Amino acid sequence: MGFDYALVHLKYTIPPAVLLTWLYRPFFTKLDVYKVGYLVFVAVVSTIPWDSYLIRTGIWSYPSHVIIGPKLYDIPLEEVFFFIIQTYNTSLLYLLLSRPTFQPVYLKTERGTAQRQWRYMRLAGQVFFLALIAWGWRCIRRGGLGTYTGLILVWAGPFLLMLWTLAYQFILALPLTNTALPIFLPTLYLWVVDTLALRRGTWVISTGTKYGLNLWDGLEIEEAVFFLATNVLIVFGQLAFDNALAVLYTFPHLFTDPSLLPSPVLLMRALLTPCSKYDDLRIKGLDEAVHRLKRKSRSFYLASATFPGPLRADLLLLYSFCRVADDLVDNASDADEARAWIAKMRNFLNNVYNDKLPQSAVHTQIYDDFPPSTQSAFLQLPATKLSPQPLEDLLHGFEMDLAFQQGPIISTAENLRVYSERVAGTVAQMCIQLIFYWYPSTLAIGEKNAIVAAGNSMGVALQYVNIARDIEVDAQIGRVYLPLNWLFEAGLSYDDVLKKPNQAQIQTLRKHLLNDAFSVYEKAKDSIERLPIEARGPIRVAVESYMEIGRILRNEQYQVKAGRATVPKSRRIVVAWRTLNLPDNYTDETTFLDHLQRNPRLQPYEFWSLMSDATVIVQHLASVIIFCCCFVAIIQNRVSPIAVVGWASICTVLAWLLWDHWMGQEFDIIANVPTSNTEESVPNAPQAYSLRTQQRIATAKSAVLIYAALLGLSPILKSLTRSTTSDSIWALSTWLLMMNVAFFDYTGGTGAQYE
């Protein structure tokens, strides 16, 4: 018995797991847990038979002085834990590196010439993996030096071949940060760990089954191949999983309303869907949406990476539509052209929400009325998940922008709020509608409406920050969004701002506007915590990333790019990570006392009733502890098994007699309770035995059955476990006890009904 292998985990595998968990914890979703857990399960189940065979045939071994002792099919538990921890670490690294990538845009339809190219690439990969399997089989058949290498290839090759066939598109098309990097980083790290372990003799490879070649001093080439193959398997598995999710959530015509935690069968159906059935227009629309967002709004682009898959896609498409609509109006050559675009967009919305109009007619109008570069934004707008009113209000906001050509339109702070509600509050409302679509809530309609209203206010706050940032840029195009009464109070005119947007009085008004923005923000931000839990963190990131611009504007610490204040990317990432790290019960210390109120759902407990409820838990845990003590004492020959069984039986009988006496008193109390005069007396049916007697007979039957079963099974179990090692019995007993404690019925048992 030793701890060398356990120390390898403590030093080299657990610390990276802790670090990666800490880094990725803010992003963890139920789907991520499902993916990692599923992959860990597959890895353990598929590796145990292979590893057990290698140990039993002596290809590799673990000296008894380096392992703690317990084994599973001759595999040390430390080795089983290695399967789990390696899969976990590599999976988390993959998730961390692939998080910024919106993977559905890398799906390909494979039609025409492209189809032949993709087929050739798929075939080339299949031939490569088949060749590896054939070579591995040849090495095994020959035996000797190549046996270990052959076993690695024959074991890993079929899995790699299957995963390549199912997900070759993603494997080839995704950025290297999603494919190569999560393979080579953990592989290189494990090569170093393996070198140290081999030098210490933590595990040993039989000399007759390896080539004797080293990648570097101390690292056998077979071990290098093994860790490379296992990490490729893990990443390919993650890629196949994500490929299936991309198909499920990207093509509603193929999979309508897929589950947010799809079953393995549904995932396989998605992977087996022919690429020719993919929707080209959908992929194009998503791709253009990602590029628009990345080019136009770095803050929201960063925040979008934190949203779950299907919601992220719809938010991207919504932003793409709003961006295109705004650009059509802003880039018009004159007011008449801008009004024409607004009229066409209003006609588009009327057609979209006209149930009697076929979809083909809507598409025809899009192709006829809008430029080709904008058509995908209109085609892919998730209108069925949105109400029409916010979209109509957005067009009213565009019309307000047009009015600037006739003179100033923002006379008061109220005018500014109305404008901000139309151009930004509406977008926030639609985002919340999409959230509630994908993550239905049990909140009442009134509460949902209150959250939507708070979202509208938050949109106003963000628009105020946007206006404060873009005073100079807006002045260049002849617009001033600062209220006229503010300008007059500061001794400025509308033209003064257009001519000199950088003067000192403007900075004062900028801070005034930012103060209003943060005032609205403080009132609305608590509603974020009432959103579905899956969207709270991402919405916080979206809001805080933008409000950070307001903070640096207030402190005058900003950088200017293209006439606009910007937040450095590193600072935006830190803000996003900190925001996601806020717990679900987070309360801002500065506003906590203002919102403090008595909890209406508080249920006070009495001490003795609480103790009574806890008795069944304490009783069962005490029974388990007594059993463990007796078991250890018997193993160490400190007590006789007959004495333990005898005294336990006597105590059980005495305890049952005491319990029966107590139950008799309970029955007498119930029997003496007078019945109501209004109740009719219903004669009891004649019974051969009283209720108490029936319970006694049932208890006696159960006791006899249990004793008989134990006496009958004991010799059988003894003979069956005679060839089983003691450490396996200890491991099995430990797991059974843990399962007993975890799944025991703590509801109170038979007597609970009399409480």
From TrEMBL:
PROSITE patterns recorded: SQUALEN_PHYTOEN_SYN_2 (PS01045)
Family matches, as InterPro entries: Isoprenoid_synthase_dom_sf, Lycopene_cyclase_dom, Plno_GlcNAc_GPI2, Squ/phyt_synthse, Squalene/phytoene_synthase_CS, Trans_IPPS_bact-type, Trans_IPPS_HH
Known catalytic reactions: all-trans-lycopene = gamma-carotene; gamma-carotene = all-trans-beta-carotene; 2 (2E,6E,10E)-geranylgeranyl diphosphate = 15-cis-phytoene + 2 diphosphate
Subcellular location: Membrane
GO biological process, alphabetically ordered: carotenoid biosynthetic process; GPI anchor biosynthetic process
PANTHER family, alphabetized: BIFUNCTIONAL LYCOPENE CYCLASE/PHYTOENE SYNTHASE
Record protein name field: Bifunctional lycopene cyclase/phytoene synthase
Organism annotation: Pyrenophora teres f. teres (strain 0-1)
